[in-house]
Write a structure and sequence with these properties.
Number of domains: 1
CATH topology: Rossmann fold
Structural class: alpha/beta
Strand order of the largest sheet: 2-1-5-6-7
Strand content: 5-15%
CATH architecture: 3-Layer(aba) Sandwich
Shape: globular
Order of helices and strands: EHHEHEEHEHEHEHHH
Largest sheet: 5 strands, parallel
Number of helices: 9
Length: 344
């Protein structure tokens, strides 16, 4: 079995096996119904029981893929996975702190699931699609403009060199399997904010990472206790969720790109009884349980594999809650329709 390590400065939480005799969580997951909306129905692989650790500054990612091969395509065409589980993934995220949250525990899931995994986070706190497009335009206008090199102090996946990346350089730094995009949460419920910026970004990814499947990361609605800080008249959690779900589904329908339904999973867990808190108190960001849920949904979407039996339980999350969160992630992924990719 392969093991995975993300070399991004933070160690992966320990993995512990759950008790095979542990009783079911007893949590019930009600279906989510929204009027007017349809339901869309680091990295080091080691074998032989050994994992090699490198100094923090070293960020060259070494991959050893020992299991089934990935799906490869002719030059210039994207790899679009079928339904078979994937043995390894190289993932680049283009987003903000919500993408950081949702992928924070993904290396731990990959390791526990025996997957090869590499991640490059082109994430900038509070950034929108429009802002990411602004940086790529600055680079294309003048490759020497520092504004175009917005992704600071990343390690080159091949050379290990620490440098500031442009988005074009990040996309060309590896042969990425999956690239994700998202809207900033404060605009996520406003479909008019997505275009033309999402389209520009998608075209740019197709040009400079032609083998990658582009996925849409559906972010989550804010918790109830955050809306007093977010000045948007008449907005509450349900209205925000309905709006962002409609906006992301419109983008998906217009582009043919699959959705990673993290926002749907958050609402599913918020509706269960007894509840599991998913956000930092008084804040929009995910707490450990929210990060765990987000990573579980990502795992299902990118690896095409069932996260439920993965025995990964990081510190700070009970085994009972972890099981319930993985169940919610799996059910959400199963309910999410797969749209045929239009990647040219």
């Amino acid at each position: 079995m392969k093991k995975v390590m993300a070399l991004e400065g933070n160690s992966i939480p320990r993995v512990r096996n759950e008790d095979e005799e542990e009783p079911a969580s007893g949590r019930k997951f009600p279906a989510i119904s929204i009027p007017g909306l349809g339901r869309r129905p680091q990295y080091l692989v080691s074998s032989g029981g050994m994992t090699h650790r490198f100094p923090r500054a070293l960020a060259v990612f070494v991959s050893v893929f020992l299991c089934a091969p990935q799906i490869f395509s002719a030059a210039g065409s994207p790899r679009v996975p079928g339904t078979a589980p994937r043995a390894s993934i190289k993932l680049l995220t283009i987003g903000n702190s919500f993408a950081d949250n949702a992928t924070a525990l993904l290396p731990g899931f990959a390791e526990a699931g025996g997957k090869g995994f590499l991640i490059f986070r082109a994430n900038l706190g509070g950034h929108s699609l429009q802002q990411h497009v602004g940086y790529l335009k600055a680079f294309e206008a003048d490759p020497n403009d520092p504004k175009g090199h917005a992704y600071k102090k990343h390690a080159d996946p091949r050379s290990g060199e620490i440098k500031d990346f442009s988005l074009r350089e990040a996309l060309g730094s590896e042969d990425w399997d999956v690239v994700t995009i998202q809207q900033v949460s404060g605009l996520s419920f406003k479909p008019e904010s997505f275009q033309p910026f999402a389209g520009i970004l998608i075209d740019y990814i197709h040009k400079y990472a032609p083998h990658a499947e582009i996925l849409i990361f559906e972010t989550w609605a804010y918790p109830d206790d955050y809306f007093s800080k977010f000045k948007e008249e008449g907005l509450d959690q349900q209205k925000m969720y309905a709006g962002l779900k409609a906006a992301y589904e419109k983008l998906s329908a217009d582009t043919g790109l699959r959705i990673i339904p993290v926002g749907d999973a958050f609402q599913k867990v918020r509706a269960l009884s007894p509840p599991i808190s998913l956000n930092v108190a008084g804040d929009k960001h995910a707490n450990p349980s929210g990060k765990y849920l987000g990573a579980a949904v990502f795992y299902e979407a990118i690896f095409h594999d069932n996260v439920e039996p993965i025995p990964f339980v990081p510190p700070g999350i009970s085994a009972v809650d972890a099981k319930a969160l993985r169940q919610a992630a799996h059910e959400t992924a199963a309910e999410s329709a797969t749209i045929p990719a239009k990647n040219p």
